[in-house]
Structures are given as structure tokens and as C-alpha cells.
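FAQ: What does a ligand-bound record look like?

Like this one, built around BIS(adenosine)-5'-pentaphosphate:
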Amino acid sequence: MIAILLGAPGSGKGTQAKVLQEDRGWLHLSTGDMLRAAIQNNTTLGQKAKSYMDKGELVPDAVVIGLIQEQVQSQKKVSRNVPGIILDGFPRTVEQANALKDLLGKLGQKVDKVLYFEINEDDVIRRLSGRRTCPGCGKIYHIESSPPKKEGVCDTCGGELKLRDDDRKEVIQKRLKVYDTQTSPLIEYYKKQKMLHSLDASSAPEKVNKAVQKILGI
Ligand code: AP5
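The answer part, i.e. the structure of the complex:
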């Protein structure tokens, strides 16, 4: 099963993807995580991506499509042994969605379900401004709704928790605009293909998780 998690920044895609990975053994492919790893490793791709990400803009389609192609190829063996693959934050434009269809088609595969995380803008702003992430293991926290046991320290690996550079207020606004203009057309795109399954992403994480499991049939 290949499932796409689609939704605004901060709608909870990463949180749910990590639960599916940890509890169910799904393969989690996040273009945001891949790009942040490239930045951390100071690769040429990372240097290029950083200038877009810091401004809240999308990294050019060709770069991200190349990244996903590489991942899908290198994970080909692994993906046969997992119950499912979650694409988190990809595709984000219609061009990316078409490229994904072609790429999977060549491998005799297809996207099975698209889970659309519905949420309002006020909730998103509250979530992103309170989010803290662990650069070491990627665990996601929120200072109010899911704080670490010890302030500023990751429960899992002891790493120092950080506010993401693109979770500053002015960048959040820009990301929301970019989502509206460039990513939200995918809702109609997948609705037309009868793949879209909407869920209420504003409820508590456990409730969202139940909705995710129901849609995935697990
Ligand atoms: P990316 O990392 O993909 O960011 P995003 O899509 O903006 O999503 P977020 O990670 O911000 O939010 P999320 O939905 O995963 O929410 P989370 O679970 O963390 O992309 C970053 C940048 O990379 C982009 O802006 C772009 O520049 C570039 N990029 C990435 N992919 C690209 C692509 N395909 N094409 C081009 N450019 C690309 O939760 C948020 C907070 O809420 C956390 O604090 C969490 O604890 C809390 N929370 C989660 N669920 C709940 C809940 N149910 N109740 C209460 N709190 C909750």
C-alpha cells in the first residue's frame, strides 16, 4: 500500500507518519526530512534547498522529484518487506504528482490512498509556533500539547530540541500562502481520481491516528 499524507503545514502529517513507522513498521518518506538532512550535511543540494526553505517557498520541482526518484530506487528492496509506504509532504504540486505517477507506473506500482488532513489556519499557527523538534532523531514535540519530560531535551535520544527555522511567524504565513496556491490544487486532483480520503486533523493525536488507521484499513 502506498499512501500520501496531504495537508497544510502543521496539520500533523509528520506526527502520524512517525506513529505508523514506529508502531506498524511502515516506511516513512518525508521530503522535508530529506531536505533538512541535506542541509545538516551541508551538501550542494542542501545549500540550494536552504535558501527556499528559509523563505517558506517550495524547493523547485526538479530537485524534489530527483530526490524522491533516488529514494524510491534505493528503497526498492526495503519497500517489498514493509506493510506500506507513507509519502509525507510529497507531492506538493501537480507537476510532482504527475511525476510520481510516472515513476511508480514504471515500477508497476501506484498510489493507493491520499489522506487529506483538514484543519483551520488558527490551529496550524498555534501548532507550528509551539513545535519543537529533535535534530538528532527527528521526534516531534509541542510545548503545550506534547511537551518533553524535561524542557528542551528529547525524551528519546537526549538531543537538544530546536525551533525549526521555518517555524518563525513571518515564514509560517508565507508557507500557508504557498500551500494555498501551489499545493491545495492537489485536493481536487486526487478527488477527481477518487483517491482522496478526508479526516479531521484538528482533534487529539490519538483520535487522528484512529481515523488514519480506519482509512488505511489497518
Ligand atoms: P515539511 O517538512 O514537509 O513541512 P510541512 O509540510 O510544512 O509540514 P510540517 O512538517 O510543518 O507539519 P506536519 O503536518 O508534518 O505537522 P507535525 O506533525 O510536525 O517541508 C518543509 C519545507 O521543505 C517546505 O516549506 C519546502 O520549502 C520544502 N519541501 C518539503 N517537501 C517539498 C516538496 N515536495 N516540494 C517542494 N518543497 C518541499 O505537527 C506540527 C505540530 O503540531 C507539532 O508540534 C505536533 O506536536 C503538533 N501536533 C500534531 N498533531 C497534533 C494534534 N492532533 N493535536 C495537537 N497537536 C498536534
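Follow-up question: can I read anything off the structure? Yes, for example: The chain has a mean pLDDT of 94.
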